[in-house]
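Thread: "does anyone have the structure for this chain?"

Original post by V.I.:
We have the sequence but no experimental structure in hand. Need at least a predicted one for the grant figures.
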Amino acid sequence: MSLHLGGLAPDLLSAVALAGGFARGGRRTVLCLDVPENVAAEVDAAVSLPPGAVDAPRADAAAAVLREAEAMVAAGAAQIIVADGTPRHGLAALTEALARRLGTGLAVIAPASPGARRTVYQGHLFQDANLPDSESLVRVWSHDAGGAVGLVPFTTVEAGAAAIRRDLARLAEGGRQHAVLDALTAAHLDAIAEAVAAYPLILGSTELAARLAARFPAATMTEAEAWPPAEGAAAILVSATSRTSLAQLGAARARTPLLELDPLAMPDAEAMLAAAEAWLDGVAAERVVVVSTALPPDRLALAQRRFGAAELDARLGAVLRALAVRLRARGVRKFLASGATAASALVGAVGSQRFTVGAELAEGLSWLRGDGDVWLCLSDGEAGGRMLLTEAFEE
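Reply from O.Q.:
Generated one for you, tokens below.
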């Protein structure tokens, strides 16, 4: 089996989502925290992160991304998908370099994700039917791409795959290097996936990635490859402060041992870690425990004013990482992390450079298996229902 699809993502949770999209589309997928060389023969999709994306970005990240793309192409990838498709600093230049390496004159930009209530209309990105930025994606991308950006509008996308292909060809013939595609519905993404199946470079959503992945013959996973073992202890680390995450914590309080760490009440990180270890000693017989650094909005604002947002995040991340190391030493092999800080701390503590993607615990939330048969589930704090934390490890 050769690599069919390669994926690149700017941060850990974007990479996890993209890898999950590939797996949802039937691909045997690996998430790489290093350059994806010597990818196992039984894997047909790989997603890679730039160096330092889990901890701190490095100055040579752009060059490393090109090396990662080179490795994927060398392994047989016919298509590279860059997660998200919304413009970020320096992405246009990187995209142009990738396009030259892949031998394509046109990069497709399709960030719409109707399932997440994110749509694109007349080149404008909408979230929950709101317009967060008055500038269109075409204009924003044009700032970095020297104006060589075109639009495939709603009327064309609504007309189907053949019309989309014709418009993309017209834009390429006119010298455009990037094409933004409107999309409002799942049917639009179906048409886009059909139309761009032969394009080597796509900047798009996880929903589109899943559709592109599904165009290849489906692979299968055994039960042992898809799910963590039912037996054994598990731990949940929470840093996300979204309404969804706080509701999940509220539901967990009544059913699962829960430790809530508050930096305002305990500002010393070493003291916080010592308190957490003592608490773990007291709940050692429990099968599942939850440790949270998430604060309600009012206390979060106070903590950010007191410590600074970056310092607070670094401080709590260090505590969660040290705690995850201690949990691993206690024999815990199953983890769920909610929030970017908790996810990065957990991945850093586990130490694996590659994870195979398993089944979905909830929509858009896949299991990852690392070295030593350690299983992780990494959420942005928005995935799953209110009972996610209480039901994640039910037998």
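V.I.: this helps a lot. The CA atoms of residues 239 and 294 lie 5 Å apart.
O.Q.: and The chain is about 40% helix and 20% strand.
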